[in-house]
Design goal:
- The chain is of the alpha+beta class.
- Helices cover 27% and strands 37% of the residues.
- It is built from two helices and five strands, in the order H-E-E-H-E-E-E.
- A five-stranded antiparallel beta sheet has the order 2-1-5-4-3, with helices on both faces.
- Strand 3 and strand 4 form a beta hairpin.
- The longest helix has 12 residues, at 2-13.
- It starts with a helix and ends with a strand.
- It is found in: Cytoplasm; Lysosome.
- Keywords: Cytoplasm, Lysosome.
- This is Late endosomal/lysosomal adaptor and MAPK and MTOR activator 5.
């Protein structure tokens, strides 16, 4: 499983404009981090996703987009795993 996760993270990080990628479990434990993604942000990313899920609890987990003028962070939860992709805007 670890090799599969590393392969997926490598594939994501090689996408144009992607500068970082992080994957965490439901407890906020970082399973993988690459690029500008920092291991210490795993708990916060999971917490943001959990709070967003409370807005519409009967729907599938939403994708959260945090933006600045130059950067974007996309957070998506799937089951017990949460991922974040950090992008540089064009």
């Amino acid at each position: 499983m670890e090799k599969d996760l590393d392969r997926v993270v490598e594939e994501i990080i090689s996408t144009p404009n992607v500068k970082g990628c992080l994957v965490a479990d439901h407890q906020g434990l970082c399973l993988a981090a690459k690029g500008t993604a920092h291991v210490d942000s795993a708990g916060i990313i999971v917490a943001v996703s959990e709070q967003a899920c409370k807005i519409e609890p009967n729907l599938k987990p939403p994708t959260v987009c945090l933006e600045t003028d130059k950067k974007q962070c996309l957070i998506q939860r799937h089951g017990t795993i949460t991922g974040a992709i950090f992008k540089q805007k064009d």
